[in-house]
Design goal:
ten-stranded parallel beta sheet; disordered N terminus
Length: about 280
């Protein structure tokens, strides 16, 4: 199941630019004033947003430097903010989902030795950028959703043999990349929804016998592939929404030894599936 006993990430959301920042009710109109100059509200609002970001960054860094926190999370920040971590080596969790970090920013965190949780969802990082993290070996939780990552990039993290949670939703992962995922034998949670995988990938997934939850929504898997997953002794949750799986798989799914929840909306399954825990959506 998803991440038990993970480090608590300090979540600090910051909205830059034209968004709303705590303590600012409005940034004013974005249109020009009647005399052709921008309103002071807009200018002052942007200045306040930048100031708020800087203040938040200082607060986070103060906690980290005083060893009161081992987590770094700054939504909507960029490479310059992450560069503040160049002299830090006591972090366990880094969350930069929806931030403006790029491959350049990853150069600033590659030296950190004991990171257990990394989230880079909805960012512009690429497979080349992950080469900066090739020395890492302690990851337990990795989320790269909605990025341009493929198997070549994931291979840079192959030394993290204790990885338990891997989320690759809507990435460039395909069947040819599954040999890399096989190098994480302790996976309990695997999310591949929205990727280009087919039934061939499920042969590799079946080798990861510690898996408890697998998400395969919006992929090209079919009844043939589902047969491979019956070999997973601990699989409790399976999501196959918007796939080619049909009623032909009902008997197979009912034979899964530990399956308690099946998410199947938008698939070709119309019959009831009698699961061990009788939970399906």
């Amino acid at each position: 199941m998803k991440s038990l006993g993970r480090p608590i990430v300090l979540l600090i959301g910051i909205v830059l630019g034209g968004g709303t920042v705590a303590g600012i009710s409005s940034l004013g109109s974005s249109t020009d004033s009647t005399d052709g100059t921008k309103t002071n509200d807009v200018i002052n609002g942007k200045s306040a947003a930048a100031s708020s970001h800087a203040e938040r960054l200082e607060e986070v860094m103060a906690l980290i430097n005083s060893k009161k926190s081992r987590s770094f999370s700054l939504s909507s920040s960029g490479d310059a903010s992450v560069a503040r971590l160049k002299d830090v080596n006591n972090l366990q969790a880094i969350s930069l989902n929806n931030s403006r970090i790029t491959d350049v920013g990853l150069q600033s965190i590659g030296h950190i030795e004991r990171v257990q949780s990394l989230s880079l969802g909805n960012t512009k990082v690429t497979s080349d950028g992950l080469s900066n993290l090739s020395a890492w070996t302690t990851l337990r939780d990795l989320s790269l959703n909605n990025t341009r990552i493929d198997g070549r990039g994931l291979a840079f993290l192959a030394a993290n043999h204790d990885l338990e949670d891997l989320s690759l939703l809507y990435t460039r992962i395909g069947d040819a990349d599954m040999s890399v995922i096989e190098q994480f034998p302790k996976l309990r949670y695997l999310a591949l929804s929205g990727t280009s995988i087919t039934d061939a990938a499920l042969e590799s997934i079946a080798k990861l016998t510690d898996l408890e939850e697998v998400r395969l929504n919006d992929t090209r898997i079919t009844d043939e592939g589902i047969k491979h997953l019956a070999a997973l002794p601990k699989l409790q949750v399976l999501s196959i929404e918007k796939t080619g799986v049909t009623d032909e798989s009902v008997k197979t799914l009912e034979s899964f030894p530990a399956l308690t929840r099946l998410n199947r909306k938008g698939s070709g399954i119309t019959q009831a599936v009698k699961l061990k825990g009788a939970s399906q959506e």
